[in-house]
Amino acid sequence: MVYQCEAQFRPRERRNWRRRAGRARRIRRALLAAAVVIAALTGHAIWRGMAGGLPPGHHPGVTLIRQNPELPNGCEVTSMAMALGAAGCPVDKLTLYGCLPREPILEGAGGRFGPDPEKAYAGDAADKTGGWYCFEGPVVEAANRWLEAQGSPLRAEAVTGLSRVELEGYAGDGTPLVCWVTLNYGQPQRSESYTWLLQDGTVYHPYRNLHCVVLVGMEDGQYRVADPLSGDTQVEADRFWDSFSAMGCRAAAVRQG
Predict the structure, then answer these.
(1) Looking at residues 34-59, what average pLDDT do you find?
(2) N or C, where is the chain less crowded by C-beta within 10 Å?
(3) Per-residue confidence (pLDDT) for residue 57, from 0 to 100
(4) Beta pairing partners, 213
(5) pLDDT tens digits for 101-134?
């Protein structure tokens, strides 16, 4: 609708026009607010059509991304790619992997040498036998490199050390949380035969069953999980917590900067 210039109306007509325009603005605001609420409750991206994209930090739901076949040992970066997509800044897992700090494991006369997984990914995630893992620090660094390159106001951050109440807070409000657990949610297992030396000379015994997933929600005492290996699954809450806490309650989230 094209409105005439207000000055062309007589006083009574101007008042009527102002009332109609005010009502129209209120109706538009109410419809937009309702769409945002519905999107938050249902996970449908209604906001996209009404406002031209997701608002920063909005989490309508997680789209599953599989780590295989390209990254058989890349569960961490694949999980973070899912969290970034849910936050409104999607990225291909291989592109994000290119942002990940990583170092090779080298064999030498003095033994086997490798990085501290707190600081860099150990090996090559694209190699079925030559890739190990990293913890939350390098994955958060990779995500923030990507976000900064896109000019996004979002930021990834480590939220390690969550209590069970805090973990269930994330699950309850549907905020995707990248979590370090174990394969099949069993007890952590460290290698005794395959080790490497860290820069400070410490002998590092890597985990043999480390895994990384995205916690996406909670329903009827079970967590809903987007697993880059096994797909969309449900895990009994106690079982998930036992595995998560045994791995040090390591987690990362994407938030408004």
Answers:
(1) 36
(2) N
(3) 45
(4) 179
(5) 999 999 988 899 999 999 999 999 999 999 999 9
Side-chain half-sphere exposure of 201, counting CA atoms within 13 A: 0
Q: Above 70 in pLDDT, residue 33? A: no
- Residues 165, 28: Cα–Cα separation, whole Å: 39
Distances in Å between the Cα of 180 and the Cα atoms of 11, 15, 134, 195 are 68, 62, 10, 21
Residue 174 has a pLDDT of 87
Residues 177/170, Cβ–Cβ less than 8 Å? yes
| Whether residue 7 has pLDDT greater than 60 | no
The CATH class given to the 75-256 domain equals: alpha beta
Farthest CA pair distance, the chain: 95
Where in the chain does DSSP place strands (E)?
A: 102-103, 106-108, 111-113, 121-122, 154-158, 177-182, 196-197, 203-204, 210-219, 222-227, 231-236, 251-256
Give the closest residue to 40 by CA, choosing from 59, 64, 56, 62.
Answer: 59
Pairing of strands 196-197, 210-219: unpaired
237 in Cβ contact with 190 (< 8 Å): no
CB 6 within 8 A of CB 14: yes
List the chain domain ranges. Answer: 6-51, 75-256
Report whether pLDDT(229) > 90: yes
CA distances from 185 to 35, 85, 126, 231, 232 (A): 38, 25, 23, 15, 15
